[in-house]
Amino acid sequence: MKLYVGNLPWSVDDKALKELFASFDVEEAVLIKDKYSGRSKGFGFVTIADDEAAKKAISEMHEKDIEGRALTVSEAKPMVPRDNAPRYNDSNRSEESAEAPMADSSVINEDNAKDEAPEVVDDNSDAEDDEEDIETAEEAKEDAEDDKDKD
Known about the structure:
By secondary structure, the protein is α+β, with helices and mostly antiparallel strands. Helices cover 30% and strands 20% of the residues.
């Protein structure tokens, strides 16, 4: 039977996890780690061949204090896939590349040549006729000072 072991202290590694359950004849103990940092995620799985020993492990180890943390021990359940995270299940995996398809630039350019952009008409041009083009921050400051002087 496979057991879920949660709320593990960060100091526990694969070997320490197996040692925690050593009295229950553990076949395998796997600590789940972050794939980038390699740091423990705080939970793991322990496989015990004898179902009676596994049930005894659940009853004795659940809520047992390890380094100030109460363990969570239960029978492992199948992982429920999340909508936003792809999982690598070979039966559902397509053989195609996971990369996004590339756009065909020749088709895009042809479409753009056919559809010429309409001429832009500035309906607010009357308000801007008496304004001058300002190219630098200094010119903007001078222009603001000139406007203050006019008032």
